[in-house]
């Protein structure tokens, strides 16, 4: 299915580009957390788990078949490598930018333009990013005390990206997918 309106298509490409850029940034920060002896924090950084849940990026790619070619990217995070507690400030800022500004604006634009698939994509992304921001805040508290996070495993919904620690819910609260479909990592 293609996207009809140029602005929604541009926002889908922008989101895809921004998420891809964040993915690379998080991979580096996860390696740094590993080196600091914080493997659980490294595991909680979404770059690694998104590799396992590539499905989340599929709706964004749909926009590549849409009209228009332009793509502008904004990132709330900083670039570069510091220690984990500091890197997490960048991660939190990046997620907050997505939650407070980027996805709500993209969602409203898609709604205004009657782009139902894009609305769904932006809604899923917004809900997942809220959770990421929460994980990062917890991780930062721990990293400041030179402690690692404590969870047995993380579970991610392969459809919408909903992420929980320790146990998957019976049904995804965002998209309704069954517990058995969650990917453990
Ligand atoms: Fe879901």
Structural class: mainly alpha
Mean pLDDT metric: 84
Radius of gyration: 16 Å
Task: Write out the strand line-up for the largest beta sheet, numbering strands in chain order.
Answer: 2-1-3
Q: Ligands bound here?
A: fe (ii) ion
Which percent band covers the strand fraction?
A: under 5%
Largest β sheet strand count, sense and barrel closure: 3 strands, antiparallel
Return the string of H and E elements: HHHHHHEEE
Task: Give the end-to-end Cα distance, rounded to a whole number of Å.
Answer: 31 Å
The percent of residues in helical segments reads: 55-70%
Number of helices: 6
- The low-confidence runs, each spanning 5 or more residues with pLDDT under 50, are 49-55
Q: How many runs of DSSP E, i.e. beta strands?
A: 3
Form type: globular
């Amino acid at each position: 299915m293609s996207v009809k309106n140029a602005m929604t298509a541009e926002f889908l490409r922008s989101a895809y580009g921004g998420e891809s850029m964040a993915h690379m940034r998080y991979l580096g920060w996860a390696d740094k957390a590993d080196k600091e002896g914080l493997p659980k924090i490294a595991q909680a950084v979404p770059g690694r788990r998104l590799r396992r849940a590539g499905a989340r990026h599929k709706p964004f790619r749909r926009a590549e078949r849409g009209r228009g070619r332009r793509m502008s990217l904004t990132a709330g995070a900083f670039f570069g490598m510091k220690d984990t507690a500091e890197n997490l400030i960048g991660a939190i800022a990046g997620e907050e930018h997505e939650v407070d500004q980027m996805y709500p604006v993209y969602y409203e634009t898609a709604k205004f333009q009657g782009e139902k698939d894009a609305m769904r994509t932006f809604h899923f992304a917004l809900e997942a990013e809220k959770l990421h921001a929460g994980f990062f805040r917890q991780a930062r508290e721990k990293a400041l005390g030179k402690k690692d996070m404590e969870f047995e495993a993380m579970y991610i919904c392969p459809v919408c990206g909903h992420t929980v620690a320790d146990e998957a819910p019976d049904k995804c609260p965002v998209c309704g997918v069954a517990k058995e479909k969650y990917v453990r990592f």
